[in-house]
Every structure is written in structure tokens, then in C-alpha cells.
Amino acid sequence: MPLRFFNTMTRQVEDFTPREPGWVGIYTCGPTVYNFAHIGNFRAYIFEDLLQRHLEFRGFRVQRVMNLTDVDDKTIRGCRAAGVSLDEFTAPFKKAFFEDLDTLRIKRADHFPEATEKKHIDRMISMISDLIAKGHAYRAEDGSVYFRIRTFPAYGQLAHFRLEDLRDGVRVSNDEYDKENAGDFALWKAWDERDGDVSWESPWGRGRPGWHIECSAMATGILGPEIDIHCGGEDNIFPHHEAEIAQSECVTGHRFVRLWMHCRHLQVEGSKMAKSAGNFFTLRDLMDKGWSGREVRFALISVKYREPLNFTFEGLAAARASLQRLDEWTLRLRELAGASDAAPLPGDMPSMDAFGEGLDEDLNISGALAGLFEVVRATNRLMDAGQLSPGQSRTLLDWLAGLHSVLAMEPEDIGIPSEIQALLERRVDARAAKDWKLSDELRDKMLAAGWQVKDTKDGQKTTRVAPAA
Ligand code: AMP
Ligand code: ZN
Q1: For the chain: N or C, fewer Cβ within 10 A?
Q2: Facing residues of 383 across strands?
Q3: For the residues of 323-343, what is the DSSP string, one character each?
């Protein structure tokens, strides 16, 4: 059965056919490194990670490029305000970004091109020269260069508007007054004093590239003129991706992208994430509150990329509970499997293919996870009844390992922290001395720190829960 994905260009779920059988090139718009990425950005990167991993699960070889936007208005403003060079300003955010990718178990792309690398700047300049030579771009009086959108009648095809509708609707900013048409966008921005020492020489004078041409140059420079899949968040559709299509196709003469995929924005507690609203979270903020990267990953991955996702702490707690269920099941299987070899599963099992088939259909993660938990439920029942053999447990563990190559939710081998261990030991003593009051106090203390204690016939058992508010 072919994989099927929703194409933003055609607004339809289509069969996926890469340019070369078995091989997929993906370009994904990466972070603008002027700040720590927020968890909304990571919804986009986790969706792209799921896409890559599922394609690989289905046997495709994926080559992925994710750019770093390390020069634009925001990075320049940031370095000027901090009084440091552009490189010095962006370096810590680049480093933090890679650390966050690892924390969230996001597979590294094959290439992370940076817009300021010389070979990419050179390619941007050569693409702009080509666009001018072909009449698609013009130099304004101040030395800026603009793309002439009326020379590309397909402009608007991705965002689904007509060129005529755009003409009146677009605000003309003060510093772009010499554009021929309000919708024309900057390919090259002439230096002005707000840019400080950030500039490159070009045939049109000193200046810097526009954000859109950066991605066109890095995408076609690394992956060639026609890319299988281009992804981003929904805010990228217009103007960024629309502009990328115009620039790239006018230079190469090829269709730029076969399949466009965009994820819906992450909302926080029902509204737009904004610093001013106090609901702006970085991954680090959540880790400081006691949540793990794996839990955040689960919370962000478990809603289909094209559906709205409202980020809440209840959602994180639900992610923690689901992972606990999975971990307890895994542990049970491991104990039962011991060193035995795989054996065939009972005939009346729920479908073992529902997970993959869910993802085949436009990355329907809800269907995929429902399929997984269906198997968990059925086999827990079999284990309760003593009807699952060690060999069958081994088969289930092997199957689960395949699923983890896509989900990346393997249990963390985090031990119980030493302070919790010390409280547990004190509680053993308290209970031996029948000091129930102290025992309860210690239990509450651990709960407040995110560790629930249960007394079982084999002694105390601790599990991670949401820390008490
Ligand atoms: P930026 O650093 O703003 O260039 O954004 C990097 C990536 O994150 C882009 O693909 C954006 O579309 C995506 N993005 C930004 N905000 C959100 C959000 N709230 N939810 C999902 N994706 C987002
Ligand atoms: Zn981009």
C-alpha cells in the first residue's frame, strides 16, 4: 500500500511518489537563532522527525536538510542590542538548539546549512544575478533587489490566492517605498546603519540576503532543483514558501517541490503562545519544572500534525501516564521473556500492523498509537491469566523495538534520584517503627517532587507522576 500525505499545494491527500524510487530528499525550514527555540517550533521539528522515521521504517532512504537562519532582521537586532558580533550572538542559540534536538530525541538531519556560510551566500548572489538577468528581479535606487511578482503568474498557488487579490492588500513598509509593486519581496537588502557591521559585498553594493532566498539557495544547492518534500509550520506557507517557489523555479526552470507539508501551530492553554501572555515555554522551562524530554516529545507527537494541538500541563501529565503504561508493560515483557527466543503470537491478537498503517495514511498518529495500546491491553490480559509464553514476550519486544525506531520512546534508564532514595529508606524505617504519621509525611514529600509511592506485598514501588502544583 502506498504512503499517502496531504499536499498543501493541491489540498488533497495524495499517493506519495518520490522522484527516485526508494530515495527521499526533504528540506525543512529550521530555527532563526536569535533566541531559544520554543515548544511550538519543536512541534514542527518533531512532526518532521516522525515523517523521516516513518519513511525509513517503510524502507526509504532519506536525505534531510534543515537550515539555520543565522542572519535576518531579528538576529541583527539581537546582536546590536547585545553589542557583540553576529556570530558571537547566534553561537549559544545554535548550541542550545542541538542540545534540545537530542533531549527530544529528534534525529539529526544530514545537513544543517547556515545561511551565513560563504558558499551559500555566493549561491544566493548568483541566483539573484540570474533573476535580474531574466527580468524577474530589479535593483531599487538604494541598492536593494526585489523579486517582480507579476513575472511569475503562479505566485499565490501554494497559499491559494490570486495575484490580483494581493496587490491592494499588502502593507508597504517605509523602507521599501521604491518597490514597483507592493507585493514584490526583497531578495537583497541594501545595508543601512541599523545593520552595523553585518554586510556582504555584492554586484548591487553592500547588503545582506532576504530570508526567502536563503532557503531557496540552500535547498537547491544541496538537494538539487527538484525536492521531494518541503516542510515547515503553517506560518511558513505565505510569504516564505510562496517566495521560495517563485525564486527557485525562475532560476532552475524546474518544479521546485513535489510535496508540501505544513503542521498546524501549537497553542498554549487555548491561546497563542506569546511572551507577553506569560505562556511562552522553551524546552528548558519544562525541564526545570520536572518534565523529561521524552514526555514533552510524547505530548507533542501524539496529536496529528494537521490538527490543532493545545499545549497544557494536563496534556503533559497524560503523556507521562501513557508512557508509564508502556514502561510497565515493557518491564513485564522483559521479565517474562528472559533469554528465550521469539515464538509465534496467539492467533487472536489485535492487528500488529495498525501502528504502521495508521502512519501510512498522512501520519495518522492517533490511529497508530491506538493500535499500539490495543496490543498492550490484550497482552496484559494474557499475562494476567498466565497465558503468554516467554517466547511470545520476546516476539512482542522485538516488535516494539521496530515501533521505537519511529516513536523513539524507549524507557529512560533514569534511576531514582538519590534524594528520593534517601526518603524511601527513611520511610522503610518509619514503617518498621509503625510511625504512620512520618510514613505519610515522607510519602507526601515524594509526591510533591513527582514520585508516587505505593506499598505492595514486595515493598515500596515508586513511579514518576506530575509534580504537585
Ligand atoms: P522560526 O524560528 O520562527 O523561523 O520558526 C522555525 C519553525 O517553527 C518554522 O517551521 C515555523 O513554521 C515553526 N513554528 C513557529 N511557531 C510555531 C508554532 N507555534 N507551532 C508549530 N510550529 C511553529
Ligand atoms: Zn525556509
Answers
A1: C
A2: none
A3: HHHHHHHHHHHHHHHTTPPP-
pTM of the entire structure?
0.87
Query: Ligand 1: which atom is nearest the Cα of residue 264?
Result: 21
To which residue does cell 522553551 refer?
A: 282
Ligand 1: atom nearest CA of 37 is: 2
For the record, the C-alpha cell of 267 comes out as 497553542
Query: What pLDDT score was predicted for residue 70?
Result: 96
Average pLDDT on 393-414 reads: 90
pLDDT in tens, 194-232: 999 999 999 999 999 999 999 999 999 999 999 999 999
The radius of gyration of the chain's CA atoms, rounded to the nearest angstrom, is: 26
Alpha-carbon distances, residue 59 vs 53, 62, 139, 203 (angstroms): 10, 9, 47, 46
Residue 416 DSSP SS3: coil
Residue of 39, 41, 112, 303 with the most ligand 1 atoms within 8 Å of its CB, for mutation: 41
Collapsing DSSP states into helix, strand and coil, what is residue 232? strand
Ligand 1 binding pocket mutation candidate from 114, 231, 235 (most atoms within 8 A of CB): 235
Q: What is the mean pLDDT of the chain?
A: 92
Neighbour-count burial for 424-461, b at 16+ CB within 10 Å, e otherwise: beebeebbeeeeeeebeebbebbeeebbebeeeeeebe
Average of pLDDT values for 264-272?
Answer: 86
